[in-house]
Amino acid sequence: QSALTQPASVSGSPGQSITISCTGTNSDVGGYNYVSWYQQHPGKAPKLMIFAVTNRPSGVSNRFSGSKSGNTASLTISGLQAEDEADYYCSSYTSTTTPYVFGTGTKVTVL
Amino acid sequence: EVQLVESGGDLVQPGRSLRLSCTASGFIFDDYAMHWVRQAPGKGLEWVSAISWNSGSIAYADSVKGRFSISRDNAKNSLHLQMNSLRPEDTALYYCARGPPGDWDNEGPNFDHWGQGTLVTVSS
Q: What is the sign of the dihedral through the CA atoms of B100, A32, A89 and A2?
């Protein structure tokens, strides 16, 4: 099972909106509404930001939103803030012999 | 407060074995599925293994199948990963993560709490 494809880096200025894509296949992203997004600051454990494509856990800012179209899921961060600078990973359930797969990761830089 | 604390990481030679542990507190451990996720130095996340709340269902990544074994002791609020026939490519920070209540495949890759990880280095 190959990793889901994410852009290596995305950047934006404070206050702007950015979108991170996560492209898979109809065996993973496109086949199930089980896509999650994680934020990871350097030296820290990942933090769940979005689950089941669009749902935010309690305590996660509503500046973070998720969506999906076909085989591509997306994470949008609106009103970009300095604290959003981190690595972001998508993850999906898959129908292959490895049931969960992560994306390649995207480094978000706040200019 | 939910806490997950991993232990057992070490420097080991290729072909040797290692057992990781994760001690949980702050929630009803035996209600929840649990997972292991690893991250090689400077690399991305890789899902490794999962176990359902009652050990009734278990899953592994192809990369570790046949070499790693996951288990849990609900009486001791602990999760384990027995790692055999270790390879240099198993070198990583191993995280313990909490899944949803019940079976490991409920609600997809919804890992809402993570430990800080324990480092496994496989090298001669």
A: positive
Whether residues A52 and B47 touch (CB distance < 8 A) is answered with no
pLDDT of residue B106: 83
Say if CB B11 and CB B121 are below 8 A apart. yes
Percent of chain B with pLDDT over 90: 94
Decide: B29 and B96 in contact? Cβ < 8 Å. Answer: no
**Dihedral sign computed on CA atoms, order B74, B58, A39, B22:** positive
Structure tokens at B41: 């130095």
Query: Tell me: the pLDDT tens digits for B103-122?
Result: 998 888 899 999 999 999 99
pLDDT greater than 90 at residue A6: yes
DSSP per residue, B46-113: EEEEEE-TTSS-EEE-TTTTTTEEEEEEGGGTEEEEEE-S--GGG-EEEEEEEEEESSTTTTSS---E
Is the minimum CB–CB distance between B1 and chain A shorter than 8 Å? no
> Which residues on chain A are in Cβ contact (under 8 Å) with B60?
98
CB-CB neighbours of A69 under 10 Å: 10
Token readout for A62 is: 């509503």
